User: Fold these one by one.
Assistant:
Number 1:
Amino acid sequence: MVISTGFPAAGMPPTRLDPVDLGGLVAYLRNMNSIDRGSLKPGNADRGRMIVEGKGACLSCHRIGGTGSYKGPNLSAIGATKSAGIIERSLVDPNSQLWPINRPVRIVTRNGTVINGRRLNEDSFTVQIVDDEGRLASFSKPTLREFKVLDKAGMPSYKDELSGEELSDVVSYLLTLKGPQ
Amino acid sequence: MTSHWRRASIVALGAALVLSFRVWAQTPVPFERLVATAKEPHNWLTYGGDYFSQHYSRLTQLTPSNAKSLNLDWTYQWPNVTGGWQATPLVVDGIMYLTQRPNDVVALDAATGRVFWIYRYDNSIDLGVCCGGPNRGLAILGDLLFMGTLDAHIVAIDAKDGTQVWKSKVGDSKLGYSVTTAPLAIKDVVITGAGGGEYGIRGLIVAFDAKTGKERWRFNTVPGPGEKGHETWEKCPPNPTTYCDPEAWTHGGGSIWVTGSYDPELNLTYWGVGNPSPDYSGDQRPGDNLYTGSVVALDADTGQLKWHYQFTPHDVYDFDAVQVPVLADITFRGAPLKAMFWANRNGIYYVLDRTNGKFLSGTPMGKVNWMSGFDANGRPIQTRQPPGVPTYPGHQGITNWYSPSFSPRTGLMYVSIWENNAEIYGGVPVEYKPTGRMFGGGTIAPYVPSPENGRGIPGAPSVPSLRRGPINTWTDAAGSGAVIAIDPATGKPRWRFGMYDVTDVGITTTATDLLITGGREGYLQLLDARTGALLWRRNLGAQMLSNPITYAVNGKQYVTAIAGLTLYTFALPD
């Protein structure tokens, strides 16, 4: 429907397609998420949840369904937005999948206060972050003593921390997270 | 100050003091006034500010020393605007004329923002318009305003009451033709062209009698059999190894979607021509594909082609050459030159001799890897990147349709640019169908490099092509923006003002060496045109996507810019 009618509020124009092309496009969009399946076999999502909340200590940085930290991106809907392959690679080689907006930042204010956090937004003159304590903060960049975007993720690789089976379980669990239904 | 303007000021002052109302002296705008815009700097009479499209104002009230006192004076909102509001207003003797999406025209008191009238145009339901369907503005001649429409017509509107006087067809909207450019009025004709390069149109530039709407002449931007340049739409080989379209020229693109310029002395009008169709699948349309990716110089009376220069032969990157041709008379390599400056979407800044189209220089404005230089004839030496390798610039180019500026005072050319933005192009053969649907012929994949190894980060958001909301999730890793000042003769940069996000905002400079611009982030910014130093800025709260202008009413200078759904007008305190 959205393809045919457009979405004027977002500037998306209507696109006229014949039924065959429209069906093909919808099928493609619906299956985009399953194209990159990664190298792992399907695991056990229940066991994966236990690893995420326990051994993996994922919630010390991430947040799922109202629980956890704000240091890293919220994972509550990761299964709706990321493929199995991307999630797998994020676990074993986090830097390779790290979006620039999610790179940790280090801020030193004029009075020497050090703040570590994650960017929510940035422009030429200001930056908005959520700090590691979960507080929202906005800064005028020219007033800062230091503003540094770190190249590496704060997240460790789980390549040697989890077995292949455990990684499969974690990926399977994360794929079940679709956000509020 | 011209006599009619002096009279207007006296009348206005008296009215304001005694009667508390204003009446501007609204005389018609004949061709002679359009030629002599320098004599009435309080007005903004053409899309580019003057026929040379220098986007330069001779107003002097606002200066670098008082710019910090600029205050919001009035605003105008149009809630029905959806998509990007790309219009540049005209200002004529105290009246502002503005287009608003999809194809309305509004006449405003330029001193207060209050509305005199609104003209509403009902587009056909068979629209086939690409890329957000904007409208970029108006032309005025005599008492008539002229506007192109999304359903590929041009209308003439009475400037006093907003009633339609005539309407003429430019192209068939069912086949993807549209008109989004502001027309250009010259002598007694009004000139426009058709957009639709992504939908397989065959482009044209067309002149209409300004009084009657009758077509005077047309120039096919994709020449047909018997027309010069048709040979550059080469015949398909006998046994092509990939799909080749023997009728490629009939739907070869060459759209017109940004207003051209005019040299009254040479009587030549210059227009930039868009990409060939399909955009990315070049093998199916062998040859240079003239006059796509070119500037054409046409006799303003007949439409006859005098010369052309092709910036991007056989374009496979969507590098429309629809940028504004900036004309200036300068000293070049020790000799006087009637120059044309062209900051092109393909990333190169060009200097041409506008009397004959001779290529004089080409200088990259940023990272470019689709070409490596020029041969002796000024033809680019193309360096197509292997499959999967990013090409610089991406399809939005290093610059695009938004107006650059040339200041005769500083002698510098100013350009809004995108930096470090690349994409991975992939052409896919596509068969044309006359349905007015997308005819792109391939894909463009975003490329956001990892700081560790330069490899693309899977799924990382890239710079949105047209619209952005209030949150930037792609960051400067995907590309950033800047205003650069260029020595127009050498192409060498003099200064750079960087922005975190990219910019689609044009530039206006003034006789007090102010530079007015903005960016996608929504900041309206005043810079020192000599140094690039930031003098003043305001957060307008939404994406800016048009050309700011400056004008004056009753001796008071205003700065106007559009952001989101609102037109903002600033002035110094009374």
Number 2:
Amino acid sequence: MTSTQRQPTQSQPAQGQPTQSRVQDAAQRSVGTASPRIEAWDKVTGRAPYAVDHPVPGAAYAWVVQSTVARGVVVDVDTSRALAEDGVLGVLWHGNAQRLESVGDPELMVLQSARIAYRGQVVAVVVATSPEAARAGADLVRVREDGMTSDTVLRIDHPALYQPVQVNAGYPARSAIGDVDAGLAAAAVRVDATYRTPAEHHCAMEPHATTAFWERGCLVVFDGTQASTAVSETLAGLFELPPQSVRVINEHVGGGFGSKGGPKPNVVLAAMAARLVGRPVKLALTRQQLFAVAGYRTPTIQRVRLGAATNGRLLAIGHDAVSQTSQLSEFVEQSAVLSRHMYAAPNRLTTHRVVALDVPTPVWMRAPGECPGSFALESAIDELASAGNWDPVRLRIDNEPAVHPEEQIPFSSRHLVQCLQEGAERFGWTDASGRVVRDPRPAVRRDGEWLVGTGVAASTYPSLTWPSTALARATADQRFDVEVNAADIGTGARTVLRQIAADALDVPIAYVEITVGDSAIGPATVAGGSMGTASWGWAVTKACRLLRERIERDHGGRVPTGGVAVRADTTLEIRDRPEFSRHAYGAQFCQARVSTMTGEVRVDRLLGVFAAGRIVNPTTARSQFIGGMTMGLSGALLERSVLDSRTGDFVTGDLAAYHVAVSADVPRIEVAWLDEQDPHLNPMGVKGIGEIGIVGTAAAVANAVHHATGIRVRDLPIGLAQMIGKLH
Amino acid sequence: MEFLRPSTWDEALAAKAEHPDAVPIAGGTDVMVELNFDRRRPPALLDLTRVASLADWAADGDRLRIGAGVTYRRIIDELGGRLPGLAMAARTVGSPQIRNRGTVGGNLGSASPAGDAHPPLLATGAEVEIGSVRGVRTVAVADFFQGPKRSVLAPDELIAAFLVPAATGPQQFAKVGTRNAMVIAVCSFALALDPQRRTIGTGIGSAGPTPLRATEAEALAAELPWEGKTLPDTIVQRFGELVGAAARPIDDVRGSAAYRRHALAVLGGRTLRWAWEEHRCA
């Protein structure tokens, strides 16, 4: 049920015919070849099964009931009317739900107590023989809530703000080098500005959804998740099962953007419901329910202080970030972390503070930290360039550090300067000799009623690698089955892993099958942190190389009748890597226009130039970069989750009110990448590309809007409200 | 919930008479959203998609009679030349999928002040043909709307068609949304020039309890240099101001009242200039 269906490719070997010939070497490398996604045909024809599409005999359906207060307790749940409804099999609430063993994430301790920590928290689940009956039953559950005064608004002067021990991804909350105040005092040009980014929701196409069933004491789950290994381990912990008794399958996942990076309440509830009714249960959250239950990007308030000498060299960088978390668990967006390595400066200070509010729990969303952080830092750099009358590209190049400016360790590779130079020339910012031809003056370029401007921002994202395992098998008919518990969330993961496998085996790609998306394959890391290709690809490479070696060494280059199999684990290799600062970098350029009559803001053109190691598949890579930049543009101009402070409810709780960019909003997006060779990463030489595209886009747009109009927007999204009345 | 599926117009009228609380459904692009969001739970739905005559349109003298079930997509494809203003508005509705399903009759039936078809129907003096077992009546679009999502339809009545003159001059439509597609109008404006009669028709959307006409702006027609002359900026500006002044907007999640008035003034002047250019070059 988890084997990947593949469209016929040319030169397929005949199946089932054992051969005595030696394994044939590849005539050409697969890595670097542009090719479409293996599962594209299945997806566009509707054949690819998502979490609740799997046919399971006798399935029941679950529907959640959510709290209507932001803080309080559930006094009583009256299930009698719901249970009397035709088709309703059972109702779960904290009074009858089975006890769970804590695994450290209070968000997953569903229906374990009467406490309500945010509006929209699940307080009951109705299970019925059809989705309609479950929904009708959910309407009949009477939940008596005792609501208390709630605190739902993030403020920079909130008295409960505190500095956490760590921020997301394990970075220290605070980092100080030298004396920022002294550096600022000595500076000839200074910027001190505060930037705000709103709450945002991921809005993946497939909602959070689960099919769960129990079979002879084992739990089997189809879950729309970016991390089926983590989900299976978590479920084993919550239900006190041996790890091998839980299997989580995520063959196809309809997007995630971080919201499916870890287990969410839906998977726990589905498993509880399946146990309650003794049947398989399908639970798909609705779009509206997702806004409370599936996480979101925290709003941020960020103060950036920069000071530069008369020659444009930074003397001080200060970046103080404030964000929110829920009363249930602490998630701290690492917004200021990128300011620790983007630019050189002798005096540096980055801080993070957070406040726990009566709100849903924020979570990873595409480039957590770097995305909102880059809006603040890269806008501030642009403000410094304006204040000092420096070219913004030149200013960034002049502050390029030789080594990581805080850790004093070398970069494994860093080509930010080359990205800026290449992008500037392609964009027409500089001429062929590198001379700046862009007029720096704001608000002077008119095109009819429009004011036109250009802006630039830098991008970065860490190049992470985590241990994973993979399995490679050769059969006597010269076919190679490679399995790794990757999650393909629409990125092309299985497609590039097959390419990597073919090269590591040194066989033509048509001989290689790839299987992903099943925790039973063996542990592998999350499709998150832009580390999938590096982490899974390393395990695949290791397994495949060992397999080919074994065939050559032990079997004379011929696959024996019984086949050969190798399992590989990269834990030790990753632990023993030398110390480097590993990041991808990029530069984004934007041309924007603002109507002097209506204040509307349009983006004409975006260009991104990235240095992200070796590109495995130009087709899927281009889509990742363009997708990231499109999401960045969407965040720059449209996306904003509005929370009603009186109710703690996201009032923009559907796609008619929460606006993401549509095709008509998206201009010409050009993407280029440098041929970056980095021997210090992994055997494939790859860095992650899933998130860097969203980093810096909003700043590039805001900087272009400033260049067009002279209006500096420090509060996303950029809309006509900030333009109207200020245009001339 | 009962689901009624008449196959002829007479059956539909009989069903509506028998079930006055049944909600008519055509493309379902409004009704299904309300059902799905649980904003509405009518005792019965009256599916009109089997009534073939509703999907017909034909010339009726110098007017067109367009069945209530004609989709936006067909308005664009089949009537774009004769009803350019309505076709422009139809192009701004939702996505291709929505335009394949949604109908102008449904738009009228919902009677939302933000309905995209309403301003061009107002600007061209269209009429709504309403049927019931009691008979047929026609109502001017300007008199059809009674308030937000309220119209003159009696509980036993259904919209059969709308009657609209084929364009006799340039028509324009402009809509402000917070993104470039798939968006409910912050405000919209339609304009129809009739050079023979020397009149201007107007329609304002999403800036009042009902779609509105800008009658004082229309009266400027008497001052226009119809004999192929350039339009003075002062008239363009005055026209825009009168359009803005005719609006009765409120502040809501999509935009402020002040912005709507401002934007309508811009759209009014702009569409007049566009239409005038076309008139002058015709």
Number 3:
Amino acid sequence: MEDFLRFMAAPFAACLVLVGIHAYLGIHVLARGVIFVDLALAQIAALGRTLAFLAGYELDSVEAYLISLAAAFIGAAVFSLTRLRQRQIPQEAVIGITYAVAAAAGILAIDQAPHGAEHLRDLLVGSILWVTWPQVLEIAGLYALVGLFHWIFRARFLALSFAEEEAVGRGWSLRWWDFIFYASFGVVITSSVQVAGVLLVFSFLIVPAVCGTLLAQGLGRRLAIAWGVGFAASALGCSLSYAADLPTGATVVCTFGAVLVALGLGWLGRHLLKRERKV
Amino acid sequence: MNYLILASLLALGSGAGAEGLRVVATTPDLAAIALALGGERVEVKTIARGDQDPHYLEAKPSFMSLVNKADLLIYNGLELEVGWLPLLVQGGRNPRVLPGQPGNLDASENIPVLEIPTGEVDRSQGDIHPLGNPHYTLDPRNGLVIAGAIASRLRDLDPAGAEGYARNLGLFERELQQLLTNWERRAGPLRGRQVVTYHQNLEYLADWLGLGVAGYIEDKPGVPPSPRHLAELVEQMQRDKIGLVLYASVQDAAAPGRVAAQVGGKAVALPIAVGAEPGIATYPELFEAILARLEAGFGGG
């Protein structure tokens, strides 16, 4: 137990912080139907960092971070400009294309580096077990700022994701606020992927949000359920990883999957019962 | 009375065995050497398995627990474990194995390192291995250097066992020396032959046996080779009559096989670490296996 606390406390705290912001963003992402936007933005940010590295900056320098953030903002601009009101092309198509091209461009960029390609691979495979307390505090501070920003402008963000017509009716600029949404998303993703890796971040983003959306209406209730599920699944995943000595990130991802299946079965059972009663 | 003395001696002896020095090695090669030297006085645990690439390791909670309890941490150095070892040492919170402490041993300390970048090392140029090629355990002569360093550190940490460590070191050195002579004789006909390798991880082996590495299939790790690079490589192999492609048995066999097939040659998989294949449990067994593969490879081609 003492060992468990000593080694797993920081990773677990990191899970909580990550679930905190990602479950919220995930509810937006689900409503907008842009499920893989996090992968695309993470890939663009990694491309930015690769280019910074080629330009001579250290991978973990402030300059490299800012360049990767700028790249993520360019991605945000692309996503906000390609939100077509008539939906001739689903936004997922643009997101998929962006992901593939950014990943491929990353390979071409790495090819130009005389050496050093090995470090670049680490950009997308952060490992939650190695997280340190200063890192946890850093992301907690950053995400609190992003969360506060979303709270202040909640009317706009909510209308944009859930009631597009209302937003248009009130004269808010769709493109501008879409850009702001994706840009703040990029800020979160750029650091979370480095801490936890793409797989884990994707699970944090989507699984709790799916649970919340499935079981409740309204942002507040959905968020409460999403956080509850996310925190519980993180605790379970971290404990399992420690008890069975399995790679932590992958164990937590699988736990999230299992929790979703269990909840889904429960929901289905309740649904069937209700129908039977009606008949 | 005599019984009493004997009993207390036995108790002392078994006590040392049960609470032996806890040694943690990052790679199985270092662990195998440490075990040969420490014998029953040490308990050796390995972090990376022989069939894993120590550059990339999935983080498991037990790694931290191992480091936390270690009396001696032996690592390869030259940035082989740079992606995870510093974090692991930080997370393990064990003052005994921090850099600079007697419990922290960089096995590369007295190794004659190959491929140290010449001239000014400019980090902006990229720098996988600014300290040189880290795969030095594949030259058994380096095994002697590593053994010396480990034995001396074991002695410092556990003076009571000094005699045993010295004896084990003597045995290890004698055995390896004899085998070295034997291996070098067997590999004599290969001296000066040219080969192509998959990655830059067989340089020390080639250096020891006098093989010439004419080129690499993938000269940047993780970046698939360009068609032109492959075409040039095949052309060079045809021109210089190079028929042998060597690669680590943990790597994918497809690319080496294809390149070898294009020149009518052979691709030979080599175990590159203790534990990389079943039946390779000690450092000398690793080279027995490598020599057998090389002989078969060159013999047939």
